[in-house]
Specification:
Largest sheet: 6 strands, antiparallel
Order of helices and strands: HHEEHEEEE
Helix content: 10-25%
CATH class: Alpha Beta
Distance between the termini: 20 Å
Number of strands: 6
CATH architecture: Roll
Strand order of the largest sheet: 1-2-4-5-6-3
CATH superfamily: Hotdog Thioesterase
Radius of gyration: 15 Å
Number of domains: 1
Shape: globular
Number of helices: 3
CATH topology: Thiol Ester Dehydrase, Chain A
């Protein structure tokens, strides 16, 4: 980071590190598609194991995808960012066979907080989740330089 500006290469390094370190996201088959400073795109194939009792994708699975996109976008600046609050709406359903794509965008970035919006869409482009989240930006770095060696964030 130079003069408080994150480069594309720095954002990519953090995003790929987070994608590798997050065991829960990997276990759900979530894949990082792209990352840029303050932005990310991730995908998840929906399986029948992700269905709720009425045969649609469990809200927790959709939320996890959105939360992961949020985390990568918020941490892409190289400073540890932790969630303060989140909100999720589910305007439509998805099912096994769909691939969900979550696109996170930074709406506001300050010295200590950041505000993000994440849209989750199914394969046909229908909006199935709308997520907003606020983070607290700590002063410590995040990424490969602080990896404790076991895939967990050190510190």
């Amino acid at each position: 980071m130079k003069d408080g500006v994150t480069t594309q290469a720095e954002a990519e390094a953090v995003g790929h590190w987070m994608a590798g370190a997050d065991r829960f996201a990997r276990g759900l088959g979530i894949r990082l598609v792209s990352v840029a400073p303050g932005h990310s795109v991730v995908e998840m194939p929906v399986t029948e194991a992700m269905h709720n009792g009425v045969g649609t994708t469990h809200g927790g699975a959709t939320f996890t995808l959105a939360d992961f996109a949020f985390a990568i976008a918020a941490n892409s600046h190289g400073r540890t960012a932790v969630a303060l609050s989140t909100q999720m709406s589910y305007p439509a359903a998805s099912r096994a066979g769909d691939t969900l794509t979550a696109t996170a965008s930074e709406e506001s970035l300050g010295g200590r907080t950041g505000l993000y919006r994440v849209e989750v869409r199914r394969t046909d482009g229908t909006l199935v989740g709308l997520f907003t989240g606020t983070v607290f930006r700590r002063s410590d770095a995040i990424g490969p330089a602080v990896d404790s060696g076991d895939g967990q964030v050190g510190g």
